Amino acid sequence: MPMTARIAFSASKRPEAQEALRRLTQKYGQKDEADADVIVALGGDGAMLDAMRRRFDDRKPVYGMNRGTVGFLMNEYEEDDLYERIDKAERATVRPLRMTVTDIHGDRHERLAINEISLFRQTSQTAKLRIIVDGKERMSELSCDGVMVATPAGSTAYNLSAHGPILPIGANLLALTPVSAFRPRRWRGALLRHDAHVDIEVTAPDRRPVAAAADNQEVRNIASVSIHADRSQRLTMLFDTGHALDERILREQFAF
Predict the structure, then answer these.
(1) N or C: more exposed end of the chain, with fewer CB within 10 A?
(2) Using an 8 Å Cβ cutoff, are 218 and 211 in contact?
(3) Could you report the per-residue pLDDT of 47-66, keeping only the tens digit for each?
(4) What's the CA angle centered on 104, arms 98 and 110, to 5 degrees?
(5) Model's pTM, two decimal places?
């Protein structure tokens, strides 16, 4: 990355992010994303995910600065020496999950997710799901609020809140994690190979409606969903030296 990389700034709608956008574009200028070498996302993790989703075609690296709330995927906000920070930044490569959903009307929907693909009940009734991994039924019926498949990059997000495992960024694994499992009550999920294909069928989708979401891209009233890692896609996040994503994930495992 050149020391004077062409930067395109993007920001969430939060006032702090919009003010940072104004200050940074005044200081460093603003390029169109098509002409930029690097994208700088301002906001929280949602802003980072939105910026990264726009990179599936051009695969340009994204450097985030926290002007939001959690900001696990973001670097600290600092206005000075931005060219140097970007030039020295460590790279983390992530590969998204692809979901193919069939809804109750027979229509198909495809979405990509960076963090996780999650299924969750739409009403007060418990969701009932059948889980198939690599063509073999692994659970005939899971009664729950929901279930998700998470990437290593997303293992510290919704997956962690649901008591799923934290995965090192280089792990060739996916986390299959239930949300408030009712039956079987003691099932805590499973670790799957990165190339596993997961099919989830909804039992009685008309009476017990279920939605599926790829990160925050939701499809409602689904009948089934097929999930696998799309190895043809590659996204790059940039982190300040000493604060790379794998280090953050390791620190998270020792946090109390």
Answers:
(1) C
(2) yes
(3) 999 999 999 999 999 999 99
(4) 20
(5) 0.84
- Please, what is the end-to-end C-alpha distance for the chain in angstroms? 37
Q: Which residue has the tokens 């063509």?
A: 135
Q: Which two tokens stand for residue 44?
A: 């929280």
**Catalytic positions:** 45
Partners of 212 in beta bridges: 119, 219
Cα–Cα distance, 201 to 147 (Å, whole number): 12
The label of the residue with tokens 């299959």 reads 176
Neighbours of 46 (CB within 10 A): 18
- Write down the pLDDT at residue 184: 94
Strand order in the sheet with 173-179: 190-193, 173-179, 146-150, 116-121, 210-214, 217-219
> Is the distance from CB of 9 to CB of 30 less than 8 angstroms?
yes
Contact of 70 with 115, CB cutoff 8 Å: no
* 46/11 Cα distance (integer angstroms): 10
Report, as an integer, the average pLDDT of 107-114: 97
Task: Retrieve residue 204's tokens.
Answer: 């009685």
